[in-house]
Amino acid sequence: MAKSKGNRVQVILECTEHKNSGLAGTSRYITTKNRKNTPDRMEIKKFNQIMKKYTIHKEIK
Questions:
Q1: Model pTM?
Q2: Planar angle of CA 27, 38, 44, nearest 5 degrees
Q3: Could you tell me the CATH number of the domain that includes residue 12?
C-alpha cells in the first residue's frame, strides 16, 4: 500500500472582493494546509492580478 500524506491537504483560495464586484474572470490560488493545526477555513491576503491590489482570499470547497 502507498503511504498517505497525513494531515496536509490541498485547498483553493478565491478572492471575495472580485467575486462580488461583477468583473470578468476569477482570482484563485492553490496552497496546502495542515488539517490538524487549522481545522477552520483559511483566510489570507493575496495579490489579485485583475484588480491590481491585495485582497482577502477565502478557502472554497
A1: 0.78
A2: 30
A3: 2.20.28.120
